[in-house]
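Record 1 of the preview.
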Amino acid sequence: MMKHQNLITGVLSLPFGAVSMILSTSMQALDHSRYALIINLMRQCVLLIASFALLSLLTHSQELICLAVPVTEIVTFVTALVLNARFQKHLFS
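->
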């Protein structure tokens, strides 16, 4: 039963990752590659490794380590929204 819950959790995190990737690509296309790089590094390296490490230390359970990817996607999504708001403010000011 836990495998199905992990699968559902992973599938539910996909839209957050998709929006983060779209925002990153749009920032890169509009010549703000620094923000795009921050989002991509957070998503693929920094937050993913940190969430794997923290979840493995805190839970000591292999089943709950599967939550590392959804946690990373959601935190990256929020960060992408914040950076996009800064970018939009800078673009239209």
